[in-house]
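Side project, low priority. Logging it here so it doesn't get lost.
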Amino acid sequence: MKLSYEGRSVMVTGGTGALGSAVLGALLDAGARCYATCWGTPSARFTYGDHERVTVFDQVDMADESVAARVYGECGTLWASIQVAGGFAMAPLLETSASMVEQQWRMNTLTSFLCIREAVRSMGEDGGRVVNVAAKPALHPVAGMAAYSMAKAAVVNMTQALAMELAGQGILVNAIIPSIIDTPANREAMPTADHEAWPSTAAIAATVAFLASPQNTVTHGALVPVYGRS
């Protein structure tokens, strides 16, 4: 199936990172006008900074309600919002602080919620699409990841709740569930792992691009595994 985003605008939060950049590339190939957010400034690996159909909002904290409202307000009418922005932390229970739990909730859950809310305000009469990024530990808990797993489990629940709420407006809400993604940072952190078993950013981006596309007309409330062979 050939995807077409011609004449449509899409926000990708965290769009300058490894997965976000891959998603941007897939959307641009399909004709989308893209907006992206970045917590700091884009790294040297980000190649779309000068693209004529890309606008980057850098140094923005999308867990700040006023910032999220301002950024989305500057994008005009959106067709889709894809929440890639998030964060990761792990520690044994007795070393997991309240601040770590709060940080993971803000970076993963609150950011996604505020961005979805502001995106829905900006969607037109044709409806739209929302794609969230949860994580495999939200469904299959891993020791030492309580704070992260709780935050991503909330993203799972939010996805399904909003899918039910927004379907009547023609807004389809879904989430992908990645395992460990094949990125340079993950390879560096786990040099002896079987990297070939990890899903590539390009393969995940293709799944995201379909879920967010006008060609997806029936799938909503889905939690789509993108595990590769891991």
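Brief comment: The helical segments are 18-29, 65-73, 98-122, 136-139, 146-166, 184-189, 201-211.
Revisit when time allows.
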